[in-house]
Amino acid sequence: MNSNFILRVALTTLLMATMSAAADDSYQTHCAQCHGARAQGNEALGAPNLSLLSEQYIKRQLQAFKEGWRSSDDSYTQSMVAAVTTLDAPTLASATAAIAALPDSNVAAPSAQTGDEARGRDLYTAYCGACHGTNAVGNDALGAPNLLGLSGDYLKRQYLHYTEGRRGAHPDDRYGQQMARLSKALKDPQLIDDVTAYVVSLAE
Length: 204
What we know:
Cytochrome Bc1 Complex, Chain D, domain 2; mainly alpha; single chain; 2 domains; 204 residues; globular
């Protein structure tokens, strides 16, 4: 076998390993303290499970935090804005790549649910399934994230942020605006609890 070819393969392998290590270092340094070493999330800190979210969706949300698309009048969002605004584009890209390389981790403990799962299933099918999918795994083409592995508290909090205009109000947030419009169809707190309970049950 040609020695030059072997050398190129070895150098390419080394470069890829170095890039992977650098990406993981970016994530562990800037993200793991809240989201966990495996990106599994931490409900006590309001930090969602990132491991099941697509790389495309994570990139878009980091942009939203950095450019002020998401309202920062709650403590969880304030923490993310503070963390992201100090990081440059290469660091954010490395951290995102590291998350994408992690194995799926559905271990974020769901909070106690008070909703009616059966009614939630019907409501989810009627209002959510067309974008987020029958099994809530999301659809990147529609900008709809995977909902599995996210805690009930997180799901409800983010949904209310859309109904209250905290998310989806910025003119550059095309997918957020889409969700904000659709969220107006389901505003009753009990019905939101029902849908949340159903989505959480899908990951059990």
